Amino acid sequence: MKPNNFDFGGYVTKVNLKCADGRIILKDAFKDNDGETVPLVWQHIHGESFNVLGHAVLENRDDGVYAFCTFNDTPTGQNAKLLVEHGDITALSIYANGLVEKAKAVAHGIIREVSLVLAGANPGAIIDFLTVSHSDGSTTDLEDEAIVYTGLSFDLEKKEDILKHEDASDKEETVEDVFNTLSEKQKTVVYALVSQVMAETDNNVEHSDKEGDKDNTMKHNVFEKKGKESYEGEKNSLTHDQFTAIVEDAKKMGSFKESFLKHQQEYGIENIDVLFPDAQSVTGNVPVFVTREMAWVAGVISGTRHSPFSRIKSSSADITVETARALGYVKGELKKEEVFALLTRTTTPTTIYKKQKLDRDDIVDITDMDVVVWLKSEMRMMLDEEIARAVLVGDGRAIESLDKITETNVRPIYTDDEFYTHRVQVESDATIAEIEEAIIRGRSNYKGSGSPVMYTTTTFLTDLLLQKDGMDRRMYSTEAELAAALRVSKIVEVPVMDGLEYEVDETMYDLKAIIVNLKDYVLGADKGGQVSMFDDFDIDYNQYKYLLETRISGALVLPKSALVVEQEQVVGPF
Q1: What's the Cα-to-Cα distance from 450 to each of 1, 181, 298, rounded to whole Å?
Q2: Is 209 exposed, middle or buried, given 0-12, 13-18 or 19+ CB atoms closer than 10 A?
């Protein structure tokens, strides 16, 4: 039975020892394999030929199945030989099918291959015999240098005793130990996984003639591939060692699902994700809108002055001119009349709207949320943002666009006439400190009401806050300190101001900030022109249609009531 030449020997399975999956191999369970030669494989990976390391000659014994293993001359075979000789690999594992078992006790099966593994499923599956070639061509039997499966302490004289005491207190955790630490919910997932794989195979259950005595003949169980004689290329099966690796990874990763998904391609488990529970929403049933930062919108809308008339007319008399000054009188001379200009501007309304539609079938079928309320909230949120944007900087659409909010109807502060908006312009190479100084000096040109607010970009605000003094200390620890230095009531970040540019006298300028008290900006709407929601049902297409609409006008009404801070663009070499 024992071959004349072989590289190492060891038990591939031991009888009456509990394996990692809870099975116990009974005496002579694999006696039909006695004397047979089977492939020696690496880690039960059958899909590639280079994973075949050699062959094993099996010998059935009273205490298990022993294998005399020989490596082939392939690079992988010789590499595995070095690993075994060096003691890096110590465990063996079998791949068997045609199992007949009762209450987890395997009475019969067919071994298809033997594998070198990092960790075996049967605690007695060990390499206990090495044949090392010497330079003179002689060999030495190293029976006294047995290597025991990891987790079992080794004593040369008490090897068999150690194998029998698998519950020793100093052993490492077994797969069963790990499994018992799982919650009932996690165990249920494991049961479902194993049941699913077993259900997809051609299982036959044969009953004995004795009542109450039932044997399960598993033609294809979770530890075998489909097919009677061939398993290469087939899927939906797990070996003992593969299942052990999955459980060990689950312990490290904290998730059975992640562990199984990690191994599904390696082990060929298809569509395994269908066994896991559906994901549960942690944000509620209503989808969360992904929007720009809109905290500034409500402040702009509420900060403007609202008029019940949509046609806004503003009149201004410029009494800053020299001719408007009071004069001294000389007796006998002619008194001169005061001269000043009277300026007027009229702004007419335009319509701004949001339109949406929903199929009635969808409204009825969506039961987790009120989709109509959700949709209407989106419409109002986006309408308000568009109005606020139009007031500060314009909607950004091209002049020729049919969707543009006409800037003669809702006049943007950013691009308004210099009679109403004073422009504080700095050169392209100006530092942040110089821009700040220009803002403070330009404050003298502000003629608006009360204390204004500075609307700016996050980038410019950050640059202002990061300024340091000569001692390398921050000049401003809070936005409130910076606002006080700039003589504004507060600073508001407006994302839609990023990247805006404007041409003045054939020179392009980048927008840095807008300083204004919105009480000087009037939004006008006639009765009926205020924001209104309209619903309609299209009976031909079974659709509900929704229209949110307003008809307004908007403009600054006081001269020099806003400051626009902008920096000349850097002109690169051509």
Answers
A1: 105, 69, 20
A2: exposed
Residue 204 confidence (pLDDT) above 80: no
Return the H-helix or E-strand segment holding 460.
Answer: helix 458-465
- Give me the phi and psi of 560, to 5 degrees please: 50, 40
Per-residue pLDDT at 201 exceeds 50: no
* Residue 40 to residue 427: CA distance in whole angstroms: 78
Buried b (16+ CB within 10 A) or exposed e, 341-357: eeeebebebbebebeee
What pTM was estimated for this model as a whole? Answer: 0.52
Sign (positive or negative) of CA dihedral 56, 60, 65, 68: negative
Q: Is 286 exposed, middle or buried (0-12, 13-18, 19+ CB in 10 A)?
A: middle
What percent of the chain is predicted at pLDDT more than 70? 69
The residue ranges of every structural domain in the chain are 8-175, 177-275, 307-347, 350-568
CA dihedral 236, 242, 248, 252 (to 10 degrees): -60
Predicted local distance difference test score (pLDDT) of residue 287: 76
pLDDT at 38: 92
**Domain 8-175: which CATH class?**
alpha beta
Per-residue pLDDT at 132: 41
Q: What pLDDT was estimated at residue 358? A: 92
